[in-house]
Fold these 4 entries.
Entry 1:
Amino acid sequence: MAEQKICHALTEQSDVLIAVTGCSKLRVLEQESTELAMLLIAIHVDPCHDKVVQVLPVSTLRIQPRIRDAVDVIVSIIDYFDYSKVAVIFDASVFAGINEIRHELSARLIETSFTQLANKEQRDVLLWLQKLKKLGNRTVCALVLLDNVMTVDLLKTWSSMKPTSNTISWLSVLDLVNPDMFNTVVEADYVHRLILATSLTVSDIPTKLGMFSANTTWLDNFTISDTYLFDSIVYIAELFNDVMNRNASIGTRRSSCYGKQLNTSTLSQDMISAIDKVSTNKTLASPVSFGGRGYNSDVTYHIINAIRNNGTQSLEPVGSWTTSGGLVMMKHVFSDREQGLENMKFRIGTNEAPPFTVFRGGRWEGICIDILNELAARLHFQYELVRPADRLWGSSTKDGSWNGIVGMTTRGECDFGVGPFSLSAERESVIDFTKPFMEDGSGLIMKRFEDKNSKMFRTFKPFSRDVWILIAGSIIVVGLILCAVNNVSPTSGSDEDEKTPRGRARTPRGLADNLWIVYGSYMEQGAEKTPANISGRFILGFWWVFTILMVASYTANLAAFLTVSFSDEPISSLEDLAKQSEIRPLVKSGSNLETLFKKSETETHQRIWEMLQTSPRVTNNSAALQLVLSGRYAFMSDSMQLKLMKTEDCDNLMIAESTFNVVGLAFIVSESSPLLEILSVNIIKLLESGLIEKWKQKWFSSTNKICTDVIATSSVKSLELESTVGPFLVFSVSTTLALICLAVEHVIYHVTKWRCGKKSDAAITLCPE
């Protein structure tokens, strides 16, 4: 029925159809216009879900922006202001792209909440505003996707609630904005952080129409459909002029529509062919250009902000969004939030400290520079990196002033400092630290050294001297015990014959034989004679177990000693460095470590400070590395810097096992600087996102040489007595059990002998010899 009504509505000589109706009827019209080869410009009065229809029929044009365009505008603004939370209230009858919004914000890991306004219930609006009031901070965006009237009413309701925080950021996308409707709202301080994205502002219409009359009351009833109807006629006129200028011959043709015969000209077909070639910017809303899909490919949204001038607020354009260029902000927005850094250029102090800050090839790079670049991108600022003239990080001098980057920051010579600044109470008294971007301890790096005098005897190193003495003593003691047991045991036989009458091998009774048996067993060579008595076998059996354990321990430790470089007494901690005098300590002048040793009251730190007085002065890692390679100095710095230094010469450098002075590393700003909160919040975001950890891994994986043994002073130690006492204890217990067996043997022997004396000669062979 709907199709028939459409056909009857088409009169003869119809060439173009402009339809202002709902989306469902538009789809019917699109089908009919395609069959009739008639140009159709569709203007929908309700939101169309155009995600399904990616390409329209060639004869159909939709001059309005797609839902996808509105979604892109919203997401671009949210990205620009870097909101961490978005609270959305929407009316599905006004905005159809809520699923696309949900998907885009979820992909960006932005915390979101959605409230659908059903039947324009004021109660739902109040509940949503009450929840929003509890979230009030600068990182929260209230996204309002309602019509003009509901949006204004919502903002008025918010003002009437008189919230204690006015830092909520408001964002709304509207097809048509009448500034007069919003004036009473934006004049209140409660909604001064307002961004509107619109296709057209009512106040711009007279100018675009060339009307300068003071009477504009007719604009009160002007709708967005009126705008697109006007733009459609303008575009059709441009198409017609293009066709006529090309002197196209216009003929007629017959077509049928549900039984109705129509006479249509070929002009419509000519205009359809010219769609890709014709565009115009004479429209009220966006310029019109169709790129073959049937949708306007030159959509423009105007970005409007409530700006305070002379104590009052008004809506003014601050930027625009286009399908080809995206979001472009032309004016300063929200002066009291992070985007206040936009277009500002900062003078930033830094110094070289690989891998945090590296000056290479005429440019700065490193972990801290990666962080700085990301902050600049997020906060929209530019910067210039400068080095202090003294090449120092910053410490107090005798007259109470500060040198290095800390001094530059306190004197206002730079806006803030970037690098691995260690948090300290003394520095905190003159500057402010941002939130730490990393935590690191200090360590020691020195030249690897070996005990060359003992190198030729390295095969004896797996056991300590006490263990070797105990092993030698054990061989002698076990040999004596075995000899005694074999001579005392009644079942040992004699040395007169090789075998007893029963065919058993006679037990060796001599001391030399027993010592040789014990020694041969320890060397895993075996022996020609073994004890025939149970007690002797008991001792020898456990001696074999003892031998297996000791040989296994020796073999395992020997492999380590032959493959790992080590020193007899490595400096593995700050305390070890303070106790000796051959290796001198080094720290960078003006660093936090220098201040630590200078001000500390602990004995170890005071001793290090005394030693530093006679050490050379260094200001960078390269100079320190040259002194370390001489073998007379140990350099102290952040562990990460030391690990990177070690890659310069893995074979000759080693890092101490233990660290000290574990503190946070941060950037610095002058006291009470407005940059402190802005930088700190964004550094926390970088930490939570894992970017800083990624950059840290990047800088170590990018080095040409990676040292496999980062903790290089971890020396292989000889096994001490306490590490091998177990086998000795086990064998001691087994020896005790063997002596008990010897006593049992004697009892059995004498009882058997007494019984055998009463037996006949036939059974005498079963008795003891």
Entry 2:
Amino acid sequence: MQDISDKESAEDTPSTPWPGSKGDCQQTDDSSGKETQLESLLEDLGLEHHYTEKLSLGTVLQIEERTITDEPAKCISDLPWYFLKKLMMVNVTARNVKCTSECESTCEDASGNTELDLDDLFDSLHSGDVLNPLDIITALFLCSDGFVRQEMALKMSMCQFSVPLLLPNCDTKQCTLMLWAMRDIVKKYRPQKLLESKGFIEERIVVSELPMISFVRLGECSLSKSETLNKLLSNSQQYHDTFIHHNMECGDSSRRISNGLTEVTWYLPCGNKNMDIFSEPVAVANLRGDIASFETQFSFLCQTSAAVFVFFDNLDSECELLTNQHHKAQIFLVGNHQRQSFSLDALKKVANKLGLTKSNILLKAKHMNDADFIKLLQKTISNVVENTKMKMGIEQMADIAHELGILVDEDCAECQTAKKNADAITAEIQDTLKYKEAQLPLQGQIWKELTVLEKEEFRLRKVGSENIEKYKSDLQIQKRKLRVQQNSCDMSNAMTCFINAISSPGIERSYFLKWMRMNLDNLSREKLSGLRELYKKKCENSENKEEIFSTRMFFQYSVLLDLLSKDDFENYKSYICSYEDHVKKWTHKQIEEHFSKGDKVFEFEDRHVLSSINSINDAINKAKTEKSGNVKTFVEDVCQELGDKLVISQDALGAFMILNNADQEQFAHWLTECVKDMAQALREKFKTETIQIKLENLLVKPQSELFSKVIGCGKQCPFCKAPCDAGASKHGEHFAQLHRPEGLGRFRWDGTEKLVTDICSSLVNSDMRFRCNGTKGEYHPYKNYREIFPDWIIQSDVSLEASDYWKYVLAKFNKEFAKAYNAEPADIPETWKTITRKQAEASLKESFNIK
């Protein structure tokens, strides 16, 4: 059996980010002369140079031979670069950091030397050439500047690796909160409250106020805390190693500098109840090493977490470390009951001192397998997450870190000054358009006009018959005038602040640009969230419209096709001048024709009668079981059971009351027989009635219902009488996709009295005028038509034409329309006169997208 110390113990010494240098916020000095644990490891990794000169993004992202080849690491000093290269590519195998020379030597020994040499075998198993991945990650974070740290944290999060929350420095015995390092991580999730709306939350994880559940170890522990966490966070379909554990490649190597490291990951629900382990988002922290050696980190977790789960094998009954803490978090004790060293008495004493209940103690019993134990943990955490009020963002944790003497990575002067400068600019952005007009005037209207002129300079699309060179010269003059206007603008406050900030020394300028980018991203995300909601609503509305209102389009198509097939003037006139009445009559006729064929109506009525009879019989049978004793109560029970399926009037019920003392069984029998006779009589009646009588007897007229549901509001364009296409739902404004020649709507030219052939889309873009009852006989510009008809939107487009369908109708019945409208016939274009009925039908199909 493996020794328990191999799993969750090692040298337990706290630490902080590597001191000094550019972009860091602290400085230390080790003048003892003796090589420290950290210095020794950095030397092995070839990172000692970065003790003072931090790794920069330029160095990490530099393209060279080792970054473009797939050669594995051959020696220990290759491991950091191998990890970084894989990580920058978001390769989930980045933490597999064993040298090939180590692998090859093991393989060679296994294949080439068959002699039994147990001493050599034992030495090879305990050689110090294999490094724990956590040590490499810790070393890289200590040796990197703030921007490399950000990039590493972001890419680790993208790979679903845990990321450093508290970074230890075993030389200085301090640790640092990795707030800046995690600022670039943005997460998207769907909590329970957004399930129905299918919305989601997207924000920077450091500002997300989430409950944090922390996992720590006290003393030795036979349960692998990190492996347990991975199982806990993985659903049944897919296991993922979020946290490095002893069963991973090199995960069982002793840790040299990473004890005291506190990592964090996030479980974020997707809104699928079958997949989500937790219904609400939660942060999960994991402290490496024994809390007895890392009291500062443990105190931090107790004050920032909703719950802390303490893994142990054996408890000291005094256990001052647990009892002396100022706990904001709930404490849960997680023990392995299967261990011989387990002491129930010590557990009872500690539990009493901490005031714990039975639900705060989780023991892995002898009969319990891993799956059952994980389910118990998941259930306990779910209960905490769903009920806790202790929620905190990493940004808020900085105050607690300061109180405990924990460093914060963004406390350096350069970072804070840059933040102040960036906030001063972006805090003023409330309304984006107004801000751009006030603070960025050079990118406003003048700039737009300049771009139009510059495009025209090359395209010359509007030159017309004018001299080209003169036209170009005029464009140049206009451009110069606009440039003069630009140059007359004073420097805005925002630009002054930006120029001052970007002129600051190198590292501060880099911080400023990063803060600006993050602040602007945050603003954009807020705006996008609102736009997404708006877009989603519009999409839903569009889908509804397409679903409805495609039936509506086919309905309209059918009405117009019927007009064309009859090709009768009076029908066209009725459709245009009495639109609603005409369509309702046409609909009524279609219903009559459809239901006159075969026994469709009878079949429908018969199904309805049988359903009603079954409901009545069921209600009678159920009322019989109640044994009410009198007929009145029996009938009331029947009515209550029927509910709103079949409403019986009070007058009808009153007739039964004279039989109140009759025998209930006998009454129920004759009532059932009467219902049977009624069903038969109704079926006979339905067989003999004509469809016309049936329709007349209906309280709700189907033609009216269909018109309101399918055709729409029934409003017509005030100029050409084209029906509104907005459909049946409530809408504030009317519109028609295809307008007709205005002559069809009784409009004629003043002076000649000839019917107008132009369509509304062209006229509202012209300088022409109109007059009608709405203008009280006064002329009014077409361009300002909304002043007279504010609830109509007519698309202004001179390129649009009437469909061949309406060209055909006006051309064929020009004289008839003129006579009916007391006007002169229109001047019909020659091309209209050649349109055939077949071409008109083809045009109709094209307009309604009918294949």
Entry 3:
Amino acid sequence: MSFLDTLRQWDDAVTCVDRKDLTEALRIFLAIHQPNSKISFNIGCLQLLNQNLDAAEKAFDSSICKDEHLAVAFFQRGITFYKMNRYEESIGDFQLALKSLRGNQLIDYKVLGLRYKLYACEVLHNMALSEAHLGQWEKAQKNLTKALEYKTDAKVNIINRAMQSTLKQKVFQAVEFPSTVLFRPNKHYVAELEKKDYLGKAKVVASVIPQDQFSGFAPLQPQVEQEPSGPKEPEVLRALEGDPHVVRYEFIPETSDELPVVPGNIVFVLQKGSDNWASVVFNGRKGLVPYNYLERLEMSLGGLQKVERSEPPSRVPPTRPERKQGLVRGESSSEDLQQKEAQPADSSCVVKVYYTFNFAVLLASGSTFKTLIENISKKLNTSSLSITLRLTSDATSAMSEDTDMESVWSGAQSKRLKLWCSTKEQTSVKSQNNDIILVAIHSYESTNPEDLNFNQGDKIMLISKSNHPLIPLKTYFGFKCSEMIFLFIFWLLQLTRTGWKDILMETLASFLLPLWRKFL
């Protein structure tokens, strides 16, 4: 049996208990295959209520086997043994129930679906009662005394009366579990048993058919091969741009800007030309249709205005009017004309440039070398004079203004051209004193006091190269030089403090001596 079926039967049985129909509830519970511990506990309670003690014992045994920590099941089985005069077994179950309480004053089973609180003092009370039946009055008094430690305000009178009866060696009444209080299924799970319509019922909001309230799916209708004998009733349409017209004859287009229509279609005329051709809209498409194939459709907000019609038209359509150059498809909309004129011929080419990073430039095929170099310089944000273009990665294939651009563009494959680029800023330039000069491509603002600030375009002299994080530099502007020497020596002292002798010696050999020669 699936979980949903078990949950549904469980809920039905609990509903029968609420209606006081205990026999039907027990029948539904017994029909559940492989019941869990809670359902077995419910069966035992109903069997105990019917005084069927043997069946109740078996049900509580099944519940305990499936949940060894269900204290209330031990308590109920202990009451069953008590009613069967099996007092020693009753005492054992009460002890197991007390052990499952784990020293707590009570257990509230509301979270598990049972509206009942099992008190430790009640368990000790019934244990003392079973001992009293066996004549063990001293043990009964000790358990009642222990029950006073777990008592609550609502249970004081029960313990006191039991204590007085024990002193007189009289048997007192047991505290029993309310048998009609059962474990209930999770209400959230029960709520999911009912089918829910998340989409709701369809409702007709607008239709082209008058008095149409059908919201389902109609079956396929047989197609009519021949033209109907009578005129088609006009349909109620929402207001669109243009004047509504009904197509009277089938029109087969001969050019791409003409629109195919069949009799009965409703089109909206945007413009009528002097050559008897009309620019129409049909199903979101614009095109040209002979105006003598159309008939004006009169519509009003109040409903349809039936127009007196003549006899059905003959099957032979009128002659096709001659086209003039004035009217083209979509001419009725000036915006469409502007967009159509603004669309250039698809002669563009994608130029992929390999630089320190790769990028692409879109140019018209056949552009001059000057146009090409200017677009790439704008992309790199640098001067066009400092850019060198090559057809291959080899340095010997450099391009210039004398390069035959027609052969270059003819080498484009699938409208894609590959070029290699380099700039003068990337190469090292030596000054007259054989000093290596670098040009700053980007500005840099230092975040540490030992770093050097520079702006884009500044020329920087490279003194030495190293894998160390500090590279001493000297600008042509002459500032930061003495400060850099001081900070560099301060950095070396910091290395000395940390015990990095090997790094210090290497730094002196590679940095300090060249720095001393350059500045002094």
Entry 4:
Amino acid sequence: MIPQLLARMPWLLVVVVILRSMVVAQDLPVAKDLPVAAKDLPVAKDLPVPVAKDLPVAPVLPVTPVLPVTPVLPVASDLPVAPEILPPEVPPPPPPEIERCNGIFLSYTFEGREKEYPLVRNMTAQAWAFKATATILNAGAQELKSWKMFVGFQYDELLVSAEGAIVVSGEGFPIRVGKNGTVLAGYPQADLKTAIETASDYEQMQVHVGLKGTQFGVADKATPMPKSLRLVNEGYKCPLATRKGPYMHVCCRKDPKFKEKKKTKYAPRTFDDLHFTYDVLKAYENKYMAQVTIDNLHPLGRLDQWNLTWEWMRNEFIYDMRGAFTHRKDPSECIYGPQGQYYKELDFSTVMNCQKRPVISDLPPQLENDEKVGKLPYCCKDGLLLPITMNETKARAMFQMEVFKLPPDLNRTAINPPQNWKITGRLNPNYKCGPPVRVDPSEFPDPRGIDATGSAIASWTVNCNMSRPKPKQNRCCVSYSAFYAAGAVPCNTCACGCEDEPPRCDRNGAALQIPPSALLVPFVNRSKKAAAFARINHHKLPRKLPCPDNCGVSINWHVDSDFKTGWTARMTLFNWEEDAFVDWYSALVMKRAFPGFEKSYSFNGTVLDGMNNTIFMQGLPGLNYLVGEVNGTRPGKDPPVPGKQQSVLSFSKKHIHGLKIPRGDGFPTKLYFNGEECALPKVLPKAAAPAPPGVLTSSLLLAILTSLVLFFN
């Protein structure tokens, strides 16, 4: 028995070695406990594995050599993975075309499009969702302040978003830019520095604007690109853009003939038709006091009962206001919004407004001396802004407000003015406003009356320009009549819109001539007069009568006389609205007949300086109040009576050769009421046609026969 065990001793030794190796492996730390990588673990040769010479071996039997056993190590997949260290993002290299540009480099890249619902067979009506990127880069030697880029969209685009910019004259997305393009302005990065002063820091030199929207009328395989691309900032000249497939670019350079204005720290102040100034008077960590000043600088511009709107971009809200008020006072938008989450202890019941787009209006005159909301210069005129040519004091408005901020803008210098400004009036011109532009702080005289000057902490300006109304979107219209014509030419069909008109009237039909007396009654009472006038004059009536003009104010221009040395006209104002117009005015543009203007008898008529061929008229003292429409003498039977005023204007023909009054020289080419351009008729009054020769002969024979009969009887 013993010899057999001794013979099997080498195998027993191998088993003992294996068991001891397993025990040692269990004592090793697992992968998750390892402080270092697997390569630092002890290798098999360092483990205390007993060799054969340390054990009792039979002297007569050969010993089988024993190999050291390597412990079982965890696989790589069980070890903790070190976090991947990504290389820093490197901005894409500038396009090669920029190497030849020493000015402002603009580019537009079309990224793709796809069909939108509803899917239609008519490709011109199919909607496509598109993406594009517009880039502006300052490659010149001068900083570009308040950059503005024009993108000539031409596929009836509807912009849904523009990351890195705002749409000038926009009212919030989505914005219909149509087929005439739009202007993009920088926000929040409005200024582009140079490579010299930033060591080629592209984050300060360029802006990428991500555009998303919808376009129409594009073929399946076409690449819809803008028709133009240029810089709008003054002092730069841009050639035609170069297009290569879905990419177009242009380099705009400084105009050598442009005269630089006085250098300032910020952009120089510019003044257009309507000028806003946003001055920060006091600044704290979480709020600031702002003063807004409105200046009407256009000689024909005007606003009645103005409503001002803008858009807060960083969750600001108006806590208090002086000199104006907001139409909505609802604290719920603050309580359930980020404002309430941050200002948990603030009583929002006293907050003036929490809307992202507040509507602000002027106070009535009776609150001008109110201790809490009044006592501010140029405030409290019930929203009346007259042109500076009429009254300099009433050409300005002002109000102040306390604005609260939210993180991360909790420091004195983190002030962001609102964007997307818009102002409207009751019956006034349409204004298109640009973005706020940072300017040097405004200066104010010392309120104590001493010879000292104070300044605002920061100032921005917003400029707005009057725009011509689009067809069928006017607010006033003109009718023509003349002493030589039997009928009057009324206002154009749908001159002021036809959105609410039933389909039974023709929105595109020409206005029917009517007797001049029919101009004194509302449109709904003219149908019978127009039909009778058509029958008398043998005019054919259409089956579908034209729709009304729907204008609140109409003006009749009547050529009253035409003689060798001069001519006269009569101008009548009709107010078809219930509200009256205080301090009304009108202006008309005459081309050839303008030098002969002599006098306006019942209006205060003057020649307007600075505007060619323009006659400015307003009511005489005590007669500057155009009343509204009132009921007739017998309500229910008699039609309503409009408020009206009238005056005769006299003109001379001296030194004006070849003046032809009936052919158009006696009619204005433009006519304004309270700054709004009125729609003019498309045709002129025509003289009554002479009777045909046959009719004259028959009439003459009938007269002769009648005379003979009477003579012989």
